[in-house]
Sequence to fold (175 residues):
Amino acid sequence: YKYFISTKVVMLGESSVGKSSLVQQFMLNRFMPGFQEPTVSPHFVKKIQTIYKLGQQKVQFNIWDTAGQEKYRCLTTMYFRDANVAIIVYDVTNKQSLECVDYWVDEVNRSNANDYFIVLVGNKCDLRKFRQVTMEEGQAKAKQIGAQIYYECSASNEKSVQNLFQEIGIYLYKL
Ligand code: GDP
Ligand code: MG
Fold:
């Protein structure tokens, strides 16, 4: 009977889609518009989270986020190594960020020999007026890349981000 899982999660996707904002919302329950992190190298945060639907089971999420290297397509192999979960984020107000999802799938396949699964996340759902990607298009992309979980959320909405990690936790216990 498993009650604790430790998992390496890598945040992927184009620059400015909201990867760091999602991590910040998950870790600190906080959204700071326009926030830019000052770090120069990829960084790693961890959080032990109870998965409520399962009862006492917990997941330690070891989350790797970039410091902007994705902009120059220069994430190292170390970043991907031994990842169990790849969260690939696109911005629902930026169609091009959805098209770039394929690049990130190729990168993680190339650099990670581990068993892992993909979570495709459409972020910035709060910006309804500016939406360029429908949920159907997101779902179709998820199917095409073989993502196990497809999810739409907003880093500004605490509940939607907490639910994302709950879904991932439930999936990890099903594996
Ligand atoms: P990253 O480059 O993928 O890490 O993206 P950031 O987390 O740095 O976010 C880029 C910009 O988009 C920042 O100005 C954020 O405040 C903003 N942002 C991120 N997520 C959301 C969201 O869900 N809704 C809105 N309205 N803005 C967001
Ligand atoms: Mg970032």
Remarks:
- The CA atoms of residues 17 and 91 lie 5 Å apart.
